[in-house]
């Protein structure tokens, strides 16, 4: 009779592993079925012991024919479980993709030794096209396993096609959620066996069973696609950095400008910095509110339309607008967080989601959108240049046959259209939006936009010529900008000098769920930076944002873990805050 330590696939557990008996010898990482309490579940073999006074139950059956998880995956799961305060079993089994039970049974690998590689890490700053070319060049230098992580499946498909065309002899795999069960099982077995491969995938590819990983490339690590929305709620940039440490491998961080986290790593000499500067023609114009008087700018727009060029007007990030009272002409400010931007369609505060129905000055319900909105941009264009009305694509559905597009920043960055001109009509308002990291997002966006080589980028607003940030953007002086940003974040203990913790809780009503978070913050002696709620009529979700100094994080984690329940989880250092 054999005794094994088994990690059960559980959402909650007071300990990580339990002892089970087996009639047959088993391998580390093999999946078995076990009884736990009154139910049955899967478990992973993670060790063997000669005797155990706690082993009273037998393994019910062997599920996989051999090893499924590796020692390195267990180490990564332990780090993610500790960082995100999730049970180890739930975390480890989240690595395993959705597969048919028949394909899981076929999973089997062997314990492979792997070489130590050059432990180098660096930031590569350039356009998206140049970054992808660099990843391909570096991956072709390896005869081991390479991982390239991209935020979009379309880009994954295109890059893998390019790589197969350049180097047909290389074993190249795409890895994303659209793959069939058999394809996922094939990749899993290939990697766990230590065979050479280049994986181009989404965030889930970081959790694969690599055994000889020589290089990790992660592109645009602040993309929202890298925030996992299922347990253990990890952030892919964090996982990539931990994976690099576990394998002592090389890491390339591709960005249009470095994240604050990457830049601090560069200042601390943990990362190298390589810049392949893209020439972008950035110019500054007066406020778009004066568009009717800007004759030379109107002429520029007309010429572009007549030549069938593509022009993009970049609107607010989340279709934000300002509100003004029709009766007293007062500009509305959110009474909850003092923010002045609201959702254009429903009047909800863009920062804290508090509903604003009445003017705080005269209590009138007659509130009107003004200024910063997609509709305002469209109306200004049509008023001054009525002849271009039919050239404007509707904002609700992009018509690529048109010449003028009004897009939010995310749509503009991911567009397949190569623009001849990109215009920020309210750049002065965008750069002053009250949100952590918002200026970094705008800077990053401008140098990540899909434009032609001779295209113009035009920033519009009041007093921009005298503005330091606008000058930094125009001159691609991201180092000066990031030094300023780093000093501000250090002063207020914000990431990467502190932890940004978003605690998400569910309850039956908005009052209950907000009250629950308020009590939790009081018990933990924390100040809530923002509190917002949303959800269905039956279940409400409240999200509270907290900041914790790095030197207090480990002790704070213990208290936080005790305070969490099965209807409360957290996200740590999401893309918004890095």
Instruction: Tell the overall outline.
Output: globular
* Overall SS class: alpha/beta
Integer tally of domains: 4
Beta-strand proportion: 25-35%
Largest sheet entry = 7 strands, parallel
Poorly predicted ranges:
none
State the CATH architecture of the largest domain.
3-Layer(aba) Sandwich
The overall average pLDDT, rounded, is: 86
Q: Cα distance, first to last residue? A: 51 Å
Whole-number radius of gyration?
A: 27 Å
Number of helices: 17
> Spatial order of the strands in the main sheet?
8-9-7-10-11-6-12
Count of strand segments: 24
Q: Give the helix level as a range of percent.
A: 25-40%
CATH topology of the largest domain: Rossmann fold
* CATH class identity of the largest domain: Alpha Beta
Enzyme class: hydrolase
Protein name: Primosomal protein N
Keywords: ATP-binding, DNA-binding, Hydrolase, Nucleotide-binding
GO biological process, one term: DNA replication initiation
3D architecture notes:
The chain has 578 residues and is α/β, with parallel strands linked by helices. The chain has four domains: 2-97, GIY-YIG endonuclease; 121-275, P-loop containing nucleotide triphosphate hydrolases (Rossmann fold, 3-Layer(aba) Sandwich); 281-488, Rossmann fold (3-Layer(aba) Sandwich); 498-577, ACT domain (Alpha-Beta Plaits, 2-Layer Sandwich), CATH 3.30.70. The protein has 17 helices and 24 strands. The strands form five sheets. A seven-stranded parallel sheet has the order 8-9-7-10-11-6-12, sandwiched between helices. The protein has a five-stranded antiparallel sheet with strand order 2-1-4-3-5. Strand 10 (213-219), helix 7 (236-247) and strand 11 (250-255) form a beta-alpha-beta unit. Helix 1 packs across helix 7 (236-247). It is globular.
